[in-house]
Amino acid sequence: MFKRISILLVSILIISLLIGPGIAAKKVEITFWNGFTGPDGRYMQNLVNAFNEAYKGRIEVKMSVMLWGDYYTKVVAAVAAGNPPDVGIMHLDQISAYVPRGVIIPLDDLAAELKLSEKDFIPAVWKAGLYEGKRYAIPLDVHPLVFYWNKKLFREAGLDPEKPPKNRTEFIEYAKKLTKDKDGDGKIDQWGTMIPVGWPNFMIWYSIFFGNGGKLFSDDNKKALFNSPEGIDALQFLVDLVKVYKVSPENVAVDADVDAFKRGTCAMEFNGIWMLTAYQEQPGLEFGAGKVPQLGLKGLANWAGSHNFVVFKQRNPDPDKLAAAKTFIGWVSRKSLEWAKAGQIPARLSVLRSKEFKEIPYIGKLGQEIPPHIIFPPLFPKYGEATGPIWDALNFALTFKKDPKKALDDAVELSNKILVSE
Amino acid sequence: MKKKLFGDKGLLTPYLYLLPHAVFFTIFAFYPVFKGLWISLHRWDVLSGEKSFVGFKNYIDIFLRRNVPAQYYWEALWNTIQFVIYSVPFLVGIALILALLINSVKKGKGFFRTVFFLPTALTVSVVAVIWRWIFNYESGLLNYILYSLFKIKNIPWLTQQPGAWISIVVTTIWWTVGWNMIYFIIGLQNIPEELYEAAKIDGASWWQTFRYITLPSLKPITLFIFVTTVIASFNLFGQSQLMTGGGPGRSTVTVMLHIYNEGFGTNLRMGSASAMAYLTALIMIIVTFIQVRFFTRSE
Amino acid sequence: MINHKLKKIILNISLYVIIIFLGIIWIFPIYWMFITSLKPEYETIAWPVKWIPYPPILENYLKILGNPVDTPVFLWFKNSLIAAFSYSFLGLIVSTLAAYAFSRMKFPGRDKYFWFLVSFMTIPGIIYLIPNYLTINTFGWVDDIKSIIFPGLASVWGIFMLRQYFITIPYELDESAKIDGANSFYILWKIIIPLSKPALLTLGFMNFLSNWNDYLWALICLSSPEKRTLPVGIVTLQGRYIHFYGTMMAGAFLVSFPAIILFVFIQRYYIRGVIMTGFGGR
Fold it and tell me: What is the structure's pLDDT at A124?
């Protein structure tokens, strides 16, 4: 009997020795798609490489990058074809469009495993990843609208280069001082600010609108409310900057404000935090970056988007790949300091408050200033489509084709139609 | 006598030669015509796999403008028709002028022909990138020339009308007029010398020669050019998508762009997109028919 | 008399002046693209404009070529090359076989079938996008190079052009070969094809370039950056470098110069192709 038991034990031992290392030696490969085509892509690649190094032989992550516009199309097509990537990034405002279509899976268990909760992240962004009570997103970063100003031009106008305008009155006053006809030919060559007729004017308008106390949609997301006095006031302010105060030129094309800010012909500019690297690389440009001034009448709101990790629904789920994907997400989330160097504000509070983060030029400061004022738009499936008409309305108003009230009224009409369609 | 099936003089041999093409043709040209129509009668969601038959609902929705995409479709159709009207006269007229010029110079015909034909070798995305840069508001070449020579301050080519249409039309002319020019050159070369000689003997002026000999002889090729140019303009996609993004507002969204966004954008509404495609195809066929009738009636 | 001659000379000179002027305008955008790519970024947006970049820098090209993760230009080039070549080669085979049957064989339904195929050329391409995409999806060819090679083989245009050309080859050659015991394939291989080299080259080149330059269909079918072809790849570039005009122009140049070089060599085939069919393939 003793002999039989020992033979059994030895066989078990031999079998586990044979299988065990076999299992351990099986490397899991997962695919990771994102839209970081800008300079930030490099930093994400660094993170991926570091992860692959740390998990060498166990997990390998293959990263694919494409334009955000294409990314959403392709990821959706891939889910339809049954072979989407294992892990991906999604913008916060897009997530709710995809949950009801079964594109991404809930991550509550992941959050529990990683012991993540609201106290680990910027509260607004953590809350925003919930859809109907379930968590679908793990926040990676926050990318806000940022206020940029040209310090040299401030000095020349007699303004303190370290003190950007704080409210509407100051903004208009500074802008007037910064708008000049330098060579005396009767045409203005330096503008206080530039309000583009397209991207990213929605973010600017939204910050003012929210700061006015405005609400985009009714609580049941069935009615559009943005033609309220708060919305009209926000749009009118932008239009007045061009028409009444004449501190911004007309017809500012998309990216014309970027070029002008780089050249020093635009003194104050609103754009995403993603422009930071481009401005830092411009020789001779001395600028400051800070939170958006309080242009709303009731409070300070700073539009922000957020990149989040999501896991896609596979036609044939592979538990090993799923586990590897979750490991990857947890790891990157903890290491988001590296990501901060790419020009994003990390969503993880521990990183945000760390000394190393605070020392990163520009971003360190932005990371302290902006998070308390961040606003995220409401999350529901039709959000993207229903806000489409607002972009058109802003364009019509800023090109003087419609006055702000009419533009927003028309947009609300279209938006309501979209909200009730199937 | 037994008839062979294969081999030389075999009954089936010719069909064997036709088979490879027939396979691809059936799968990718014949079958899709019906499949597309079938799709247009459904609400077709690729993601969830939900395909529900809705009969002619998609078409009715479009005609009655029952939803926002349907509204946008008619806007897109009108934009496309505008583009056809703005672009075709130039695409034909400038091609004719270039062809006449090249035909008239003694030396360097081949060289100039290559120069004007070269842009057609480029793909639309490269063309759009180059011209987007030229039409750039703040720092583009065109605004620079206008300012330094004529002191005209920045014109918003891509963000306002009529600048947006002008920039798309100019880009399209630069890119594709070479084709029409080649057709005209061939057409001109096919005109028999005797006709010109007879005209010279009769003492006809240049204009008379042009009007009574050149133009009529070019009629067949001109019809062909008109038909293909109108169809090509109807299919405008790349320049709208990449230069103006459909803006300002939605004024340069074309049917092709709208259908692409509907069917392949984030909404993936393939049923209604397919219906729009069939509707547009019908309109294009009618337009072509009218053109051919117009040209051949005035014989 | 002298007056008349003078008039003619002035006319000639003015024609040349006009055509040279137009020629310069036509070539200028390509020149502009090229020199912008050789300028450092801050110089591209600076006014007054520098017409000749001095000194020219290669930084913009290095940025693109040295970044195989975001901008795998060599992969794009490889994909374009494989797709265009395969399409061209397979297209030649398919079209030659069919055109041969239509032009030199008699069989029931021949002309009816031919005109049936030709009639399909009038169907607007817009209706094919969605159903063919779904077919591709069923085959599992989404994001695969097969999706931009095979669907195009349904084209009738090549058959039309080759049939037109084959008809001009005298039938006596076939007959004398048949007397010597040759079968149909032998005639095709040893007689027709060698005599049709110009037409075949023309079709081959035109197919190559049209596949090389295809944008919309490749945009729909190919998503991963490493699977993309050059026309779609440059759009990826735009997402990344949209403000960086020097880099964008460098990308534009890299994407377009293979086509430009190819074109300069094959454009006479193009024109011949147009003459042969009475119309070309846009």
Answer: 82
State the virtual CA torsion across B24, B29, B32, B33 in degrees, nearest 10.
-160
Q: Which residue of C has its CA nearest to B23?
A: C154
Chain A partners within 8 Å of C224 (Cβ):
64, 66, 74
Task: Please give the model's pTM, rounded to 2 decimal places.
Answer: 0.84
Give me C241's structure tokens: 């470098």
Q: Which domain holds residue C226?
A: 57-276
Mean pLDDT throughout B182-190? Answer: 88
What is the pLDDT, as a whole number, of residue B3?
58
Q: What is the pLDDT of residues A165-176, one digit of tens each?
A: 999 999 999 999
pLDDT of A333:
83
- Residue A259's closest CA among A337, A196, A172? A196
From the options 3.90.1150.10, 3.30.70.20, 3.10.350.10, 3.40.190.10, give the CATH code of A27-140+306-373: 3.40.190.10
Q: pLDDT tens digits, residue range C221-230?
A: 987 778 889 9
pLDDT tier for residue C188 given thresholds of 50, 70 and 90: confident
Q: Which CATH superfamily is domain A145-303+382-420 in?
A: Periplasmic binding protein-like II (3.40.190.10)
Does the structure's ipTM exceed the value 0.95? no
Subunit contact C236:A66, Cβ cutoff 8 A: yes
**What is the 3 state secondary structure string of chain C?**
CHHHHHHHHHHHHHHHHHHHHHHHHHHHHHHHHHHHHCCCHHHHCCCCCCCCCCCCCCHHHHHHHCCCCCCCHHHHHHHHHHHHHHHHHHHHHHHHHHHHHHHHCCCCCHHHHHHHHHHHHHCCHHHHHHHHHHHHHHHCCCCCHHHHCCHHHHCCHHHHHHHHHHCCCCHHHHHHHHHCCCCHHHHHHHHHHHHCHHHHHHHHHHHHHHHHCCCHHHHHHCCCHHHCCHHHHHHHHHHHHCCCHHHHHHHHHHHHHHHHHHHHHHHHHHHHHHHHHCCCCC
CB contact under 8 A, A81 and C142: yes
- State residue A23's pLDDT score: 46
Residues of chain A with pLDDT under 50: 20-24
A108 to chain C, minimum CA–CA distance in Å? 29
CATH annotation of B19-295 = 1.10.3720.10
- The pLDDT of C228-252, averaged and rounded, is 85
From C127, C231, C271, residue closest to B278, measured CB to CB: C127
